[in-house]
């Protein structure tokens, strides 16, 4: 016996109307009627006396209504007991964290979480942002980090850290003495860039397209420090998040602000909408409210 059929039947009895029940349940009237007919077929009785103009239950309908109410009430009680037990046993949180995001910002939050919730095992899966979305959708991780821009109706999105991306050049480069540079001035430059595994790769390409050119990428790497080392030797230029460059700063490079367009860069904490908010997730996510 489907719980849904009992629930639709009880709501219809309480509303004394298929139409009103459908409105309160946010479903079509036909869905309510079909559900009650399925319940009648399963129990092999008529629940509603359709000979009357007004909504009237049969004797069997009154019996089913009484027991259906008890079943539904008991379901809610048992559901809350189950959720409470799940919270009590909730000792693992799986967190998807892209390379470098931890050292730029999340290291302090991870420490704070461990201090506040010492009994919860925080399992960090180091993976680039595009894979984090898939892992969340497949319930492999509970919460993850991506970069802006990111929009998806399936996710709750918290902007937790704002900065910008900047041009990085060698001290020997012609732009090293500039304080700011328009994007279009870089159309003939040789770029050293991150690989396609990084969400940032496509964001960079979109910014170049917005500025009216396709970048000449001569080398790609997963290693931020290698990219900066090659730039320091004047083998090419790069555009990277400012906090990352400051974190891995090496000699012989200069940072230059980008304009027309500017290049904002943000870290976003994301998790699936409409899922049960376990205690471990709640404890973790609340750490970021002060930064929003």
SSE topology sketch:
Elements: H1 3-15, H2 18-25, H3 29-43, H4 59-88, E1 92-97, H5 101-116, E2 121-126, H6 129-137, E3 143-147, E4 155-170, E5 180-182, E6 190-194, H7 199-210, E7 216-221, H8 224-232, E8 238-241, H9 242-247, E9 253-259, E10 264-272, H10 279-285
Parallel strand pairs: 1-2, 1-3, 5-9, 6-7
Antiparallel strand pairs: 3-10, 4-8, 4-9, 4-10
Outline the structure in words.
InterPro entries: HTH-type_LysR_regulators, LysR_HTH_N, LysR_subst-bd, WH-like_DNA-bd_sf, WH_DNA-bd_sf. Belongs to the LysR transcriptional regulatory family. The protein is α/β, with parallel strands linked by helices and 292 residues long. 43% of the residues lie in helices and 23% in strands. It is built from ten helices and ten strands. It has helices spanning 3-15, 18-25, 29-43, 59-88, 101-116, 129-137, 199-210, 224-232, 242-247, 279-285; strands spanning 92-97, 121-126, 143-147, 155-170, 180-182, 190-194, 216-221, 238-241, 253-259, 264-272. Strands 1, 2, 3, 4, 5, 8, 9 and 10 form an eight-stranded mixed beta sheet that branches. A two-stranded parallel sheet has the order 6-7. Strand 1 (92-97), helix 5 (101-116) and strand 2 (121-126) form a beta-alpha-beta unit. Helix 1 crosses helix 2, helix 1 packs across helix 3 (29-43) and helix 2 (18-25) packs across helix 3. The mean pLDDT is 88.
